[in-house]
Structure formats: C-alpha cells, structure tokens
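Researcher: We're teaching a course module on how sequence relates to structure. For the next exercise, students receive a sequence and then see the predicted structure as tokens, so they can try to spot secondary structure elements on their own. Here is the exercise chain.
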Amino acid sequence: MGSAVTTTHRRWLLTVLLTVLFMYQADATIVNVATPSIRADLGASSAQLELVISGYLLASATLLITGARLGYLLGYRRLFLAGVAVFGAASLACGLAPDPALLIGARVVQGIGGALAFPQVLTSIQVHFAAGPVRTRALSLYSAALAGGAVAGQILGGLIVSADLLGLRWRPAFLINVPVTLAVLLAGLHYLPADGARDTSRRLDVPGAVSLAGAVLLVIVPLTLGRQAGWPAWTWACVAASLPLLAAFVAIERRRTAADRSPLVNLLVIRRPAIAWGLWPQALAISTYYALLFTLALYLQHGLGRGALFSGLTLVPWVAAFAVPGRVLHRLPARLQPLLPLAGCLILAGAYTSVSASMFTGEHPEALLLALLALGGLGLGTTFSSILVHLTTAATPRYAADISGVFTTSLQIAGAIGVAAFGTLYLSQVTGPGQAPASRALGVVTAAFAATALVAGATAYRATRAAPAAVTPGPREARVPAGTPASRRA
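Model: And here is the predicted structure for the students to work with:
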C-alpha cells in the first residue's frame, strides 16, 4: 500500500481480511460437535450428517484455485466481498434449514462462498503489504487466524450447542455468521482498496478450471468419505481416475502459459525450486495438525471419556504457541532466517516424539500433554510463518493469485490426506479384535507425525537453499510499467 495509507487504515484492512479467514476456518469444524443435535432435531441419517460436514470442504477445496484466479481477473476486492456475501447468505440458510437436504445444499453454497473469499486474503496481503516487516507481521497474524480458527470452531460449537440459545440448539452455530458477515461487508467497502483497471482481454481458463476441479474432487471425495465406508473399491478407483485429469490439467496449463493465454495456474512460477519445494513442508506439517485435531479428540473423548469442550480447550496451548513465532522471528539476524523452517520442523518432531514416548511409557499426565502441545504449536508456527514469508517473497505481486490459489488448495488436500491416513491408523488399532489401548494408539500415530515432520524439515531445508530464479512474464505482463503500484499490476 502506498505511503498515503495510514497505519490505522492498514490495521483495519487486515482485521477485515483475517476475520473472514478465521470464520472460514471455524466453520470447517464448528459443525462437528453439533451433529448429535442436528440428528435429533432434523432426523438426519449418518450419511446425511457426513455430507453436512464434508459438503463444505468439498465445494471449497474444489474451487479455491479458480477463486484465486477470478480475483486476478475481476478484482480482489470485488471477489472478496462477493464471496463474503454468498457465505453469509448460505450461513443464514443453514441456520434456518428445515430438513437435512436443504442444510447440505446450504453447506455446499457456504463452501463456494468461502472458496471465492478465502484466497483473496493471502493475495491481498501480498499485493497491499510491502515485503519486509509490514508483510511479515501481517502473515504472522494470517497464520494465527488459520490455525486458531479450526480449534475455535470446536470450542464455539461446544459452547453454543450447550447453551441452547433461545431453544435453537445447533442453529446459532450458523446464524452467528450473519451479523459478522454484515459487519465485514460494511467495513470491507470502506477499507479494502479499490480494484485497479483489469485487462478485459483475459478470460477464465475454463478447460483448466474444469479439469483441475475434477481432479481435486476425485481425490477429496474418497479421502473424506472413504474412511467411514471402510475404503471400498470406488475410493481407490476415484483416486486413480484423478491422475489422467491432473495430467490433462498440466498439459492445458503448459499450452496456455506458452501462448500467454492467462492460465489458471502459471506453472513457470510454481515450478521454481524455491516455491515448489516450499509448498511441501507446509503441506506435510499441516497434515499432522489436522490429523492431531481428529485423533486427539478421539483419544480424549472416547479413550478418556472427556467432553467435546474439554477436547477443544486442550488445544488452546498449541494455538497460543503457534501465534508467537511470526511476531518475533523476523527480528532474528538475517543469516539465521533460512534455518527457521528446518528448526521449526525439528521442534515439531521433538514434541510429537515426546508425546509418543509418554503414551508408551504410561506417564502422560494432562499437564505434560498440554506442555508438549504448546511445544508442538511453537514448532509448527515457526515453520509455517517462516515458509509463508519465503513463498510470498519468492515471486512478485503479479503472481500473488498463483501462490495464493495453490497454497490454500494444498493445505486443504493435505488436511484431508492427514485425517484420512492418520485417522485410519488410529482407528485400526482401537477397533476390532485385539484392539489396543487408546494411549498406545495415540503413541503410534504421534510417532508417525514425528516422522512426517522430519520429512517436512528436509523439504524445508531444500526450499530455503533453492537459488532464486526469475520468472519470465508473458508479453502482456511484460508491458506493465515497472512503476505501476502492486495493487494494479495484477
């Protein structure tokens, strides 16, 4: 943002962006603890409840990259406000839904609204916050909102359902979004910078969007629904079918990039070693986080008989520690900055290893678990914040939509893979003949988390060691004057 923009204005802009990010994340988990109430009130079946949860994720993950590109084509402010409006209207429909079918449909529309707004948050930070301390602070708060929203959803869901506000049971879990979205829309109209002139000759890459959406859907659907179904043959057939669609998408993007025809994703940017390697540690580390949310809840609620609210509150030390690194790491000497992603992964691996050891030895008091979770949050926060800064500075703002779309989609897919793989590993030990104690099952899973964190550390080290390489812009991109403000280059 230009020098004419005051610090206060910039803070309000960031508040608007992060409020939507937090709300988007919270809605992915808030319904988890409301499902018993929904079943009792609407008579929903188990399959319908699964779709209430997964419909949001499926719609969102499928359209995130397309949402990021539409922001590039139509304007980040315009897409952000449109997405928030759709999200708010769908939340109202969720809260008023008279039957499971309408609730499922509203959840899908909610996910579509989230897919339009969510990518614009990271894109706007890249475009409107100059590289350096200002952007680093903004990204640290972005990281905190991303991690905190998922946990807050579980806590808020437990509080809201338990309170039974006005006798509405589960409905306020969705209706609470309505006043928030109205406030965001009003504030956004005032504080979001106006979109610059767009290149009207560019159009959405429809073949690329369709092939990518199909490939993502064929991966996310079996990962989301397959575990409860016992991994039938159709789940593996879907994953296999995603490969030719993904190959078709890559071929389409290569042709459009070579012809300078506004590809959905500029592969020249994503293939740069500093970016390609940088996406891996984020995906690997975040897969263990989402899996931890799932397996720790099972351990605490089914293994120890604790309530959902206690389960959510247990992760508060993790989220609190996660927010710390982004606020302080930029003050370290520049020579240490490239080592931060690896250091964070090693801390994360150490925390998981300690949890695993405590579970196997039988010495796992709650105070120790909370301390180790705080250590894990510190490790993940160090990796996440430092790699996010690395990714957003590895390309110029004109490629912000490419980074934002691929980054947010990779997190969604990684989360689904983590829950599917590690969740299955946990459940396979605590169910059926010869079932193991819940503590032992959690010990095995956290040991697997530790191994994954070490692999993430290796890829993080490779990313920060990758030599920066220039991205050659297409002919129309090359015509953008060098002095054009970042907010108008896209």
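Model: If you want an answer key for the exercise: Residues 1-191 form a domain with the Growth Hormone; Chain: A; fold (CATH 1.20.1250.20). The longest helix spans residues 133-163.
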